[in-house]
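hey team, just a heads up i'm posting the complex here instead of the shared drive bc the drive is being weird again. everything in one block, sequence lines first with there labels, then the predicted structure for the whole assembly after. its two chains so it's a bit long, scroll down
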Amino acid sequence: MRTREPRPGSFYALALFFALFVLFLYGPIITIAILSFQGPQGGLTFPMNGVSLHWFVDLFEKQAVGDIWGAFRRSFALGLMVMAVTVVLSVMGGLAFRRRFIGSGALFYLIIASLIIPSILISLGVGLIFDILDWEVHWTTSGFGAQLTWTLPFGLLIMFAVFNRFNKAYEEAARDLGASPWQTVRFVVLPIIAPSLIGVALFGFTLSYDEFARTLLTSGSYNTLPLEIFGMTTNVTSPVLYALGTLTTVFSFLIITSFIALAVILRRRRAKLGSDAGKGMV
Amino acid sequence: MTLKGLISASERTSWLLVSPLVLILAFFLVLPILTIVVVSFWNYNEFTFFPDFIFDNYAYLLTSQVTLSTYLKTLKFMVLTWIFCTAIGFTVAYFLAFHVRSLGAQVALFLLCTIPFWTSNIIRMISWIPFLGRNGLANSALISMGVIDEPLEWLLFSDFAVVLAFVHLYVLFMVVPVFNTMMRIDKSLIEAARDAGANGFQILTNVVIPLSKPGIMIGSIFIVTLVMGDFITVRFMSGGQSASVGRVISNEIALLQYPSAAASAVVLLCTVLLMIAVMLRFVDIRKEL
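-- predicted structure starts here --
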């Protein structure tokens, strides 16, 4: 057993600060979750005017709101597409960047640029290209590409961090035992980095699912869910907006927790199989 | 000698691995920026925009009084957001890194902080309405405590609301890199400082803050670019009353004045790149991964 120093006084002040910070992060979303159960006569603020599922029922009636279910299906499909491409390209990029190659420095800065460029520029630029070329903007083409400029840098930076901490002895051992480069990657490297790939997938899906600015001018006539919700804020003034917000946030939470659970399970399984690779953070 | 002979096999493998990435970034990042630069010299009328080589878009932009005041306003949002995000983000990261003792608890609390980042920004903005509105929780609480008699009108749809929402949305971009840098500080340095007689505050100012600087810089780069390019938070949280550089661009797009939107975008890009260039002098990003 570890001997414990007594907590310094500053600990309690900082712990209180942290608790308030968490309240600041989650408080507003909890408020709208409660208010989405407003009675049929209830408004956008407290007090609660009865408790009902009225506004959730409204969501399922096509007249009350726009095409939110179509928008949800599109966002979900797009999220999966972006996730798949982000994971695959991030792993490939991560593998490539373990060695310096001609242009690796420039490419690294291009990746950083993709992350920090104001989103509206991507939206405008991609929109302009499609306009000039007389192509039709669509969420599966222009929207897809525009979102990748946002998710790929996150995926790549995670992979860079993972490979920075990767113990090359495992690969050398595989090579010494006669594994081909592909076999080394497939049976040694990928299993070791698998939990981190869950993290990359989580970023890929959720950042796409919630993306607004880069999709604005690139999704065409069919809105994704965030665009549809933003459209609602200008003309819907009933708690149905909160009901939708609650529902999609619950959906996000389900996705996040299942990804995290999956990562934890993978990590446990790996620990049980006796490898101590990547015991550090990340 | 052929090209193949000059370039090693590993070099070719690396290029093969990054080629899809390069193609995507070329078409959806580099080409769009070049297009914006080109189109910013084009002309337009009420119906369409067409190739030309004019400086009118820039001339109008750079001489307009509105541009200056919009930039000042956006800079105000940025500076306020940065101050609050840095203060809050540093404190939270400091607590997590130095006061939470078990790694498990650190990871759990860190995840608790990052989960909102993976949910919708639009919903997170909307969720301030019941709190800040005229009849919202903040006003009711203040009235019942007797602090004010009349509901405060400036809570929602104001500059205050804009900065509050920015801090709410973007503070994680400061917490994460600062926490990451702090976790790498060798704990024996802090013990050494304590043995040498430094008190808690001296350790903070002489050891922790200097060693956390790269994290703070990375967080600052995020916050500067996110706030400078934002158009949706300002529009929604100010109720359409406040201007920002991003909103000007989005309004010009809505009016189909693409060349003038492109010129505004080029100026914004130069401003942001200039700020980042200054900040990058203090940090080597590649070392921080």
